[in-house]
UniProtKB/TrEMBL annotation:
Gene Ontology MF term list: UDP-N-acetylglucosamine diphosphorylase activity
Protein name as it appears in the record: UDP-N-acetylhexosamine pyrophosphorylase-like protein 1
Species of origin: Collichthys lucidus (Big head croaker)
Sequence similarity: Belongs to the UDPGP type 1 family.
Keyword vocabulary terms for this entry: Nucleotidyltransferase, Transferase
CDD domains reported in the protein's UniProt record: UDPGlcNAc_PPase
Amino acid sequence: MLSFEQLKQRLESAGQPHVLQFWSELCEEDRDTFLQELSQLDLKGLKDHCEGAVRAADSPSANLDQHIQPVPPESIGSVRKSDKSCLAEWENEGLLQISQSRVGVLLLAGGQGTRLGVQYPKGMYNVGLPTGKTLYQIQAERIYKIQELSNRKHGCKCTIPWYIMTSEFTLAPTEKFFKENNYFDLDPSNIVMFEQRMIPAVTFDGKVILQGKGKIAMAPDGNGGLYQALVDNNVLEDMKKRGVEYLHVYCVDNILVKMADPVFIGFCVNRGADCGAKVVEKAYPAEPVGVVCKVQGVSQVVEYSEFQPQTAELRGPGGELVYSAGNICNHLFTRAFLQDVAEKFKDQLKQHVALKKVPFVDSCGNHVKPTKPNGIKMEKFVFDVFPFSRNFVVFEVVREDEFSPLKNADGAATDTPTTARNSLLAQHCRWAMAAGATLLDEHGNTLPPAGSASAGDSPPTQCEISPLVSYFGEGLEKLLGGRTLPTPFILDEKRAKELQAQ
Ligand SMILES: CC(=O)N[C@H]1[C@@H](OP(=O)(O)O)O[C@H](CO)[C@@H](O)[C@@H]1O
């Protein structure tokens, strides 16, 4: 740890002496904590960071319009447009890789859930399903099930390690939650949690913001902080030791995420890709999803916050959106590619600017909650490594089956606990009906198929199928075929055993 004098001097040369302005008012304990926190900062890089933040916030965002092109449709693999045998071939390849323990999953869970308005990690959110399962539990059970399906098919005992990138905000509660839930019956030695870095928020004139008299306002370095965190925490070595060659990276909030999706993995493997992105067709021009496109001939994602509205509105001859490849934050990387990024490219990742309302103490020591943005937060984005890929592929999946993110609190128009819950229930209802079940409402009336015109605006059918019973709708015919089932209907392992015995 640095001494007070050393720190003072370094902060002065970084142009940030105000950081210690309340030092004399701090008690011994707070001084120790503050010294520790400041010692962990990259003080050498602090000056550059602060100046860079101001420069980035000042420079108008580049207008990409003249350089941008959609990804050519022929280079996109598509679930909807591929025939069954093709999909089965990819799935088989994916299951084979999983069965050989060559696949890991990595969860991006460092965010603060500000839009959702909760103080705890988003993965701990219960969207109000009949079983009350949280996002973390659903994801854990899908890992368990896909391991089991691969084992059964290939007569082996495979492992999908689950890497979880947290931040200072989310690590402790996530660890506690997993422990309390007995790691959802996964082997804890296959769950690797680590923290991404935090960086200081900066005022518009380049000063580090004090959140308290002895505390700097820090924020995670964006989900693109992943690549630094992989290095800081020896994650690539861990993958190598375990023989993991493919990493499925996803963000915490999509209730429909197919963990270690064998179809996507098989598609990427068959194409020899080192980097792949799943997309869905954008629902409407202003939908807050990044767009996979080409900028000056190079495939990349342009984030929704940086996409020009007039470009987003462009439509083709059939009325379809020209830029329709919506990023769902579901990526596949080979370990070799990640190693390359770690060694050669991670410091070249673009810095994105977010202007935020950052609570602070003013020069008189008053705590202020700003009503308009006062701070610059710099973030890296996970997809900004795509341009470094040698063989990048795009895989389009069906939105109803694979994408329903939880971003906002109930009351917002989209991406809320209600929309997430309803998407999952509707999917499970479709699975049950496709397996040959007839579902009844509480009055004993037959329910129309989910999504059909007669389903209209009626409340979603309460049909929830445990991922431990079915990963993606498979194996349900023998349990549900020809049966008439009253709702609410919960198909968990116990019920599945009873149905099988009948
Ligand atoms: C930096 C990043 O990964 N942004 C992603 C991510 O957005 P957030 O608003 O950060 O949750 O998830 C979106 C899909 O839910 C995706 O469209 C977008 O590109």
